[in-house]
Amino acid sequence: MTNFDERAKDWDSDPKKVERARVVAEVIRKTIPLTREMKTLEYGCGTGLLSFALQADLGQITLADTSQGMLDVLNEKIAAAGMTNMHSLRLDLAVDAPPNDKFDLTYSLLTLHHIEDPKEILKKFHALLEPSGILCIADLDKEDGSFHTDGTTDVHLGFERAELQRWVEDAGFSGVKFSTAFEIKKKIDDAEKIFPVFLLVARKA
């Protein structure tokens, strides 16, 4: 089992995670003209908090993750809510063949910093999008390594926005725009630290 498999059943019981997804969804909604015709992919969906917050404004949503534990919880939630426009997919784009579908919008929340080769994944996101499709990434600004207090390793310590913009443009996107979508507050060594979460939006060139 992965660290995320073990944490899946209690994931939604953290009100901070629920609120984070809700706020980021609102920022996405204000930034991108969402429609019920949009076919979308959430990569690194976890238990689907972000997609559940967006689903009323989208068409068919493919929710992909590498953690079967997360997907098991997600499938229970989809069934309980009777959602007909959401379906899960176990997918690791680093090693698996990409789905045959093409998407109008691909989005992720705090996923990119867990991916070993972000530049390669950005190219795969580009290939999965329809012409003029939209990429939307919410992730950590560069941090000092203190964000992960749960023993998580093998992660990037956030991203410098200018550097990430170059990677996104090199992958074939244009019109890159950043905003600050959320701030995660954590108590570390008896002091509160703030970790900004950016929202990057770009379009397939």
Protein described:
The chain contains 6 helices and 7 strands. It has 205 residues and is of the alpha/beta class. It has a single domain (3-196), classed as Rossmann fold (3-Layer(aba) Sandwich). Strands 3-2-1-4-5-7-6 form a 7-stranded mixed sheet. A hairpin with a 2-residue loop joins strand 6 and strand 7 (191-204). The N and C termini lie far apart (39 Å). The model has no long low-confidence stretch (mean pLDDT 93).
Main attributes of the structure:
205 residues, alpha/beta, Rossmann fold, 7-stranded mixed sheet, globular
Shape: globular
For this structure, what is the CATH homologous superfamily? Vaccinia Virus protein VP39
Fraction of residues in H or I helices? 25-40%
Quote the beta fraction.
25-35%
User: What is the CATH architecture assignment?
Assistant: 3-Layer(aba) Sandwich
Which whole number gives the mean pLDDT?
A: 93
CATH class: Alpha Beta
What class would the helix/strand composition place it in? alpha/beta
Number of helices: 6
Number of strands: 7
Spans where pLDDT lies below 50 across 5 or more residues: none
Overall number of domains: 1
Q: The CATH topology, please? A: Rossmann fold
| Radius of gyration from CA coordinates | 16 Å
- Element order: H for helix, E for strand: HHEHEHEEHEHEE
End-to-end Cα distance: 39 Å
